[in-house]
Amino acid sequence: MRISDLGEFGLIQLVQEWTRQSDSDTGPDASSVYQTVVDNGDDGAAVTFLRDRVTEVYTTDTMVDGIHFTSETTPWRDLGWKAIASNVSDVAAMGATPALALVTLGLPAHTLVDDIKELYAGMNEICREFGARIIGGDMVRSPVGFITVALTGIASAEPMVRTAARPGHLIGVTGSVGGSAGGLRAMLQATGDRGPSMDRLTGAHRRPRPHVTEGQTLVANGVVSAMDVSDGLADDLGKLCAASGVAAVIWADKVPAESALKSVFSEDWLDLALYGGEDYVLLFTAPPEVMAAVIDGLPRGAAVIGEVLDGEPGAVTVLDADGNPRLRAGAGWDHFS
Amino acid sequence: MRISDLGEFGLIQLVQEWTRQSDSDTGPDASSVYQTVVDNGDDGAAVTFLRDRVTEVYTTDTMVDGIHFTSETTPWRDLGWKAIASNVSDVAAMGATPALALVTLGLPAHTLVDDIKELYAGMNEICREFGARIIGGDMVRSPVGFITVALTGIASAEPMVRTAARPGHLIGVTGSVGGSAGGLRAMLQATGDRGPSMDRLTGAHRRPRPHVTEGQTLVANGVVSAMDVSDGLADDLGKLCAASGVAAVIWADKVPAESALKSVFSEDWLDLALYGGEDYVLLFTAPPEVMAAVIDGLPRGAAVIGEVLDGEPGAVTVLDADGNPRLRAGAGWDHFS
């Protein structure tokens, strides 16, 4: 069987099974130093150092030329920003703050040195802004360009996880969605449109701002269930629900679509908001009283968008304003299809 | 200018300069939790957690299909082993023990699921053997296969570094060299030779055994200057010397070439030993009295092979048994040439 037949989700499940076999014999040095608090399968993994009770979070994310970006839609400096941003977003989803980055570049031999300089300029910008630091990495020749970032984070509390959503929880999102996908589509369609709405969408695609502060606000208010939105709101909610063994409904009319979307894509703005991807906001669930306490303190267009239910694990139903199921017009991002 | 004109070393120097710009503003959370003890440019980076004084080491290494391996010379299970091994070796070079691994796979959609299963079987084998654990990762579609591993290590003492070699130090190596390069060449030449020597060389190429125990022995004996041999003994010694601002001589007749090399490659076994690469033994320097105390306690063919000198930083001269300079027949591995 080829991995394209199995799909991303199926392959990830197999790999989690296979890697469990490496679990048994952690070295004696390590187990006397920390304990694992979040294992394989979440936004990141996390260990808590035994003596000073600091929790360190680990995540990694990769972008491949022609698959996850093109130089037409993402200039080198923005690519550097985004490669770090997707990792910062994973750290944010656990309620941690970004710390140390390892940057690996796979580069064709004809790559221009000035382009790599721009790439690092973009990485430096976001590192400065979010308190991260590039501490090492690797550079190799490759027929196709790729960039892999591994990032640590520091948390003072127990990390939020994907496995803690429970029936009766409300579902929140920390900011507006769909802007990045809208920006990408507008650039690919090359409509020639200009103006503030286009700038907003292009900016959402090229310079996403991970919700680190929001993640810490969630933790401070007792939220324990969260993940970041990278593959599309509905799709990622499905992953969160699958990890928690629950189902969910999304109230479509409550989804905070990026404001510029409706003017540029008057027909399918809602599909872009629900299924777009690369939003890098946080999706979280909490009991109604916790949700009520936290939602108004979030600064960037947060909203309550649905409810966690008993049901087939991972099943997500989108309801329209009349409470009727809405047919899914798009599909989430599958890395191997 | 293209990176192929600049070369790997030149590009690495530039990147280190560019990333220094991200250094200034490490977040307040991080700096209250740990301090950086080894920065960008060594086998790995390292931070020491302030309260429990544990030092955590971070390293990453990448292998690209067709550049660093082929499925003909490295079966999937061995590829898994090697992808972890090169990182374990970096951790060993700092005197630390391996801990947590993040594994990123870039895979063409036609990749067979069974091959990925084999890959993880090989990774699990080496993780079990060296006390490491796969705690997360990423999988993406890519037109060319690649595997990136990021690995942490735990050290109870100050890590050994590349910057601490001093004139008057003797140079030691913790084991024999050239076996991996010999094995690769024998496979590529497809001589059809069989027998124990060929098995030894093929095994050295496919299943290198990083010198974790040796690294800890070095640290315990007060060695502070070390790196692992991945790009070839002479070439890596040049890097260590450049980082330390010193020169060196290698006494060719003291280099512990893998025993099977001479029988299979009677003419250029010494070139393979000096310039071969992927040996994953440790190269270290120490004052004569420290060297005398440590060298006999190393179990796998360790030897004193040369001396650190004042001179042009990074200049390495190979001397033959009569003390005459030996012309360099090979060159180290440049990732972009």
Describe this entry's structure for a reader.
- The structure is a homodimer of 337-residue chains.
- Chain A has 337 residues and is of the alpha+beta class.
- The relative contact order of chain A is 0.15.
- In chain A, the strands form two sheets. In chain A, strands 1-2-3-6-4-5 form a six-stranded mixed sheet. In chain A, strands 8-10-7-11-9-12 form a six-stranded mixed sheet, sandwiched between helices.
- The model of chain A has no long low-confidence stretch (mean pLDDT 91).
- Chain A has helices at residues 3-20, 28-31, 76-93, 113-130, 179-189, 196-206, 212-220, 233-244, 259-264, 269-275, 288-295, and strands at residues 34-38, 45-49, 55-64, 97-107, 133-141, 146-155, 170-173, 225-228, 247-251, 282-286, 303-309, 316-319.
- Chain A starts with a helix and ends in an 18-residue tail after the last strand.
- At the A-B interface, helix 1, helix 2, strand 2, strand 3 and strand 4 of A face helix 1, helix 2, strand 2, strand 3 and strand 4 of B.
